[in-house]
Structures are given as structure tokens and as C-alpha cells.
Design brief:
mainly beta; three-stranded antiparallel sheet; about 0% helix; about 40% strand
Length: about 140
């Protein structure tokens, strides 16, 4: 799949060829897409049918799977500095939520650990860590 796009990918395969004990076998694609086509993300099933001159037939199928390998990008706010009062060892810190982009969209940003915005933060470093949950 071309980087920066979510259009899918060109997939090529060797087209199955039916054989029989008698000449005149015709093989045709009855489901799916042609070799060299732009396949969408996910699974595409290609099914081929071989039919002999007497009308006997057989089918075969295979899947082509196109997946997004480009990682999303998450942008967090830089360091937030908050000062405690003289009689406290913690202070409320607020910060903007991170933003994220992905070539195929994303479903959510998840805080893995660290305190949420608006919580009391102690004197030690307690940076929230987040990740993007991608759609599959």
C-alpha cells in the first residue's frame, strides 16, 4: 500500500488454469478481482470456475489480504510545569489531550499510565503515556 494513503494495494497472482482429461476446459473468475487490480484493505476472496465441454465444473478460491502497515502519529503536549504551594508536595496539573493522525483513521487514544489531566501530581515525574488504538 502506498505510504500516506489508505487506498489499498495492487495485488498480482497467477490465474488458475483448469485441466481435464478432455480438451475444451474454460476457466473463469466468478468472484473477486483481477490480478493487477487495486485491492481494498481487508480480505478479498477470488474464486475461479473450470468447466469442461460436458458441463462438469470445479472451483477453487484463495484470499488476498491487504493491510495497513503505516503506524499512526501521536502528538503530545510538551512538558507542563506546575508549582506547588509552600505547604504542599503536590499540585493539580492540567494538560491538553494529545492529537493523532493515521492514513486510514484511528478509533481512540488511550492513556496507558500516568495521571489524567486535572489530577494531583506529586513532585516526582509522572508523565502520562498514551497510545493510539488503530481500527483493524
Amino acid at each position: 500500500m502506498p505510504e500516506g494513503t489508505c487506498a489499498g494495494a495492487v495485488a498480482t497472482y497467477t490465474t488458475p488454469v483448469g485441466t481435464d482429461n478432455c480438451p475444451g476446459v474454460v476457466t473463469q473468475r466468478i468472484e473477486g478481482m483481477a490480478s493487477g487490480a487495486l485491492y481494498p484493505l481487508g480480505y478479498t476472496t477470488n474464486t475461479f470456475k473450470a468447466t469442461d465441454s460436458d458441463g462438469n465444473s470445479s472451483t477453487c478460491s484463495f484470499n488476498i489480504f491487504v493491510y495497513d502497515v503505516e503506524k499512526p502519529v501521536i502528538t503530545c503536549q510538551p512538558l507542563v510545569t506546575v508549582y506547588t504551594s509552600s505547604n504542599s508536595c503536590s499540585a493539580i496539573a492540567t494538560y491538553s489531550p494529545p492529537t493523532a493522525t493515521d492514513n486510514c483513521g484511528y478509533s481512540a487514544i488511550e492513556r496507558l499510565f500516568g495521571l489524567p489531566s486535572g489530577a494531583f501530581f506529586g513532585r516526582d515525574l509522572q508523565s502520562p503515556v498514551r497510545r493510539i488504538l488503530q481500527q483493524k
